[in-house]
Amino acid sequence: MAKVGGLGEVSAALPAALRELQVDARVLLPGYSGVLAAAGNVRELARLTLFDAPYEARLLMAHLQNGVPLIILDCPQLYARAGGPYQNEAGKDWDDNGWRFGLLSKVAAILGSESSPLDWRPQIIHCNDWPVALAPAYLHYTPQPRAASVVTVHNLAFQGNFDPDLVAALGLPESSFAVDGLEFHGRMSFLKAGLLYADAITTVSPTYAREIQSETLGFGMDGLLHLRRDSLFGILNGIDTAVWNPETDPLIAHNYSASTLDNKLINKQALQQRLQLAQEPGIPLLGVVSRFTQQKGIDVLVEAASRLVELPVQLVALGTGERELEYALRTVAARHPGNIAVAIGYDENLAHLIEAGADMFLMPSRFEPCGLNQMYSQRYGTPPIARATGGLVDTIVDCNPGTLRNGSATGFLFNQLTAAELLSAVRRAVAMYRDRSSWRILQQNGMARYFGWDTAAQQYAGIYARLAGLV
Ligand code: ADP
Ligand code: GLC
After folding, report:
1. What does the pLDDT look like over 271-312, one tens digit per residue?
2. Counting atoms of ligand 2 from 1, which one is nearest the CA of 7?
3. Where residue 47 falls among pLDDT bands split at 50, 70, 90?
4. Contact 348 CB / ligand 1 (< 6 Å)
5. Which residue has the higher pLDDT, 315 or 84?
């Protein structure tokens, strides 16, 4: 399917949880090659011809792997290509992304209007991130009755800003290109359109909802977000607790639970073996699974890596991303064979084994709207060490004598994103690791935390009901 980091996981899991609450949630996805291949048998629902370009598209009916009804916007000319959803194989944004996601947004809006070719008419169009954030602008110019809209910000750094010519080309009135419209620093912005016209805005953690109203993490949208603060809600993501369960996970070397934590060591050995790390059971093993980008603070990890080895800890990092960061990580790993292993690539099996086999999990994020791995690692008895930002603050309880005593401590947080603070947080963790019984408590506290989707689904369903005038 189409999965780029956390958003892919969330877009499949949230609708499933909503359906459990009797919300008839269906997913709209572009017909990327991977989506069409995974969908198998599809049924054509409608044909559409849109824009003056023009684009011939079809709506196809299918289901996600978890059973959620899926409407595929099939337009091979725009979506069926080798490469990622947003970028080509060389990592460059597709030149026609404005058209690609303009069409997606337009179709989403049509489905919520009287001119929809489908019998099924949603009361709410819920848009995830910039690629479909133009839908609320289209809806704004659509006569009633029409669906209400919700925009969820998963990452404010990605805004979908394009050439102003696109406004007219995508069939929006020229007058919408204004300071109190889609205009953003001389460009037309999909995300700004969404933030302006959506009936409600949500983001994926309460702390991030506050942070994006400040200049530091607002990426230029802070003023608008602050203005709309009464319609802005921070709803913490859940995780798929069936997929991420150390008791049943088929992708790890040995299953374990909070009461059989000794078996976690078998996973550590398997991980060390797989990545040719020294078989040292006593040296704490630090895991990282991440996009290798500035957002994730990988540059600071590189800076700290050699000194981490001196603590001593072993480090394993799995990911892909910016070429320079991949290269820097590889270089530092080559300098410390047996103690640092770097795997470049997207590998779900290895991601699971790292969660199970590492002793601690590191997330030195510069900003983190929610983050999923810190929740997985708590479930896997692998206490997270993370920068105190965004969803990491909302999901990790920093370990100190008080939180350890009252049974709430689950990991380690540090404030400034510097190599020195990162190292001092890891040092705190290593000291605690040496105290076997306290460490065990920390692990078990994390494993007892509940991160299921139902809590978030209830909050979204509450917003939908209010917007649909049902309450
Ligand atoms: P983001 O969406 O910003 O990348 P999240 O923490 O929300 O961050 O989600 C990232 C998800 O992608 C996690 O489930 C993580 O395990 C997974 N992931 C990231 N990189 C890799 C990789 N190289 N191999 C396997 N899984 C990965
Ligand atoms: C984004 C954010 C990440 C979040 C994910 C899912 O990719 O970077 O923090 O967990 O979306 O909401």
Report:
1. 999 999 999 889 999 999 999 999 999 999 999 999 999 999
2. 6
3. very high
4. yes
5. 315
Q: Which fold has domain 5-238+454-467?
A: Rossmann fold (3.40.50)
5-238+454-467 and 261-448 share one fold: yes
Q: Domain residue spans in the chain? A: 5-238+454-467, 261-448
CATH homologous superfamily of 261-448 equals Glycogen Phosphorylase B; (3.40.50.2000)
Does 128 contact ligand 1 (Cβ within 6 A)? no
Percent over 70 (pLDDT), the chain: 99
φ, ψ for residue 413 (rounded to 5)? -115, 145
Amino acid making up residue 70: L
* pLDDT reported for residue 171: 97
Continuous segment of H or E residues that includes residue 383 = none
d(Cα 438, Cα 150) in Å, to the nearest integer? 44
* The two structure tokens encoding residue 297: 């603070």
Q: Which of 311, 347, 317 is nearest to 329 (CA)?
A: 317
pLDDT in the model for residue 90: 86
Distance 420 CA to ligand 1 centre (A): 25
Does residue 289 line the site of ligand 1, with CB under 6 A?
Answer: yes
pLDDT in tens, 159-183: 999 999 999 999 999 999 999 999 9
| Structure tokens, 74 | 């099939």
Ligand 2, CB cutoff 6 Å, lining residues: 5-7, 10, 154-155, 204, 237, 368-372, 391
Q: What is the mean pLDDT of the chain?
A: 96
* Tens digits of residue pLDDT in 224-277: 999 999 999 999 999 999 999 999 999 999 999 999 999 999 999 999 999 999
pLDDT band of residue 1 (cuts 50, 70, 90) is very low
Q: DSSP string covering 193-245, please?
A: HHHHH-SEEEES-HHHHHHTTSTTTSTT-HHHHHHTGGGEEE------TTTS-
| End-to-end CA, the chain | 36
